[in-house]
Amino acid sequence: MTQPPSGPPPSDPGQPEFPQYPSPPNPGYPPVAPPAGGYPPIPPAGPAGGEPYPPYPQVNPAGYPPPPGYPPPPASPYGYPTPGSYPPIETAQSTNGLAITSLIFGIIPCCNGIPALIFGIIGLNQTKRTGQKGRGLAIAGIVLGCIWLVVSVAVAIGLAIKDQPKRDESGHLTQSGDMDVTKLRVGDCIADLGEKSYYTTTKAIPCAQPHKAEVYAVVPLSGSSLPSQSVLDQKGNDECGAELETYAPNAFDDDAVQITYLYPTKRSWAQGDRAIACVATFTTERTASIKGK
Predict the structure, then answer these.
(1) Taking the mean position of all CA atoms in its chain, how far away is CA 165?
(2) What's the pLDDT at 96?
(3) Taking Cα atoms as reference points, which of 104, 106, 99 lies closest to residue 131?
(4) 3-state class of 55 per DSSP?
């Protein structure tokens, strides 16, 4: 027997001085060989149950949760609006001038209330379109204008009725007034014909009142159209001359009596005027009829 040496065993020059560990295996799966005999390929590996892997949760890169959002500022306890919620500033609106004018004309009686109506209607339309103030003023002006117009019409009708001449049962005038010349009758006296060449109305009065003309005949005209001027003049001269001898035999001897006549115009003919009115005029006023004298 030999005794082992006291020192370390001599190193083997063919082996390393330190122990060596085996290298780790190559990661990954070995390639899959194609199936033999027509078998289907092996499905890829996955979790049990055939369900896909759930996605990984998103993690903040820094590892900290995100900061919470800030809540909106609380409402002010004193009633002040929150920022950005102030109401729009309203500008003062002017009053429509025509509405004011309408009210003025409605208060002051002018032109039978017609200006108040006109300005009120225009002003009311303008306030609707522009949003101006004065709608009530315009309405008040229109109402007042209507009142003045109705009052004016009523007064005019009343005056017209009052000025109408009146007759008694026998047809003689008992009250003077303006009369349409187409309604003159034999025996009607006229205040004064004047020197006009065209008449529509004249003032008829009782013959007992001072007057300067008197109707003594009404000569009818025939035909469907207005006769010519020459025919009217000839008929007026011939007929009125003969009628005066019958109505007042002594009138031809009175130099203060003259003959004239009123004949139809185109307008009066279209309205039904079909007669010539023979009129005796006087140079001075008379207070009695010339009939029979």
Answers:
(1) 44
(2) 93
(3) 99
(4) coil
